[in-house]
Amino acid sequence: MTQEQDWFDHVYRQAAGDPSRVPWNRTGAHDRLLEWLAREQVDGTGKRALVVGCGMGRDAEALAAYGFKVVAFDRAPTAIAWCREAFANSPVQYVQADLFAPPAEWSQAFDFVLETFTLQALPAERRAEARARIADFVAPGGSLLVITFGRQPETVVEGPPWPLTRDEVEAFTEHGLRIVRFEDFRTPHPEWERLRWFRVHLRRPPTETGQTP
């Protein structure tokens, strides 16, 4: 277990089954995900989805409700055990896996990939490899949705988390993906005057014999 992996797992173990003790806990799926799914009128029937860094599983469950066959992974084994217990009757496949050493069969295997807050939790020197790994999960004709805190390049942040710059998110295009829509917006927050978000939809072009987006 890596030092980072151990830290995340420690948080879940210390929570001892109490979601309120997990700093990134949410009572439901991410609002930015739910908004996007509704707006795009997504139908996941017959499609495979992968949730990167699934945490407590709520985003994965939301995608399953939209018809996707979902695989959700986290590097923290306690998080995966938590999800399996909390959603014992779920169709979601919860898997303990390392983003930096994923199963080979996941390469370009998913019609939809969700990345929410994983990159911003990593130090800068690890993000390039993480982007490459995440992009590789996307099948020809498939989509990646990235939801993250955003910042200007000149803004200095003491993390984690480390909000991403626009360039860092756009760097997914170095791995065969194309930006469909880049949303940069701010919302009210009790601790900060305005909280900046990026929500970015990217797509891998279909092959000649592959499915259309």
Automatic annotation (TrEMBL):
GO molecular function: thiopurine S-methyltransferase activity
Keyword line: Methyltransferase, S-adenosyl-L-methionine, Transferase
One Gene Ontology term from the biological process aspect of the record: methylation
Xref: InterPro entries: SAM-dependent_MTases_sf, TPMT
Pfam families (alphabetical): TPMT (PF05724)
PANTHER family xref list: THIOPURINE S-METHYLTRANSFERASE
Annotated protein name in UniProt: Methyltransferase domain-containing protein
Source organism: Ardenticatena maritima
High-level lineage: Bacteria, Bacillati, Chloroflexota, Ardenticatenia, Ardenticatenales
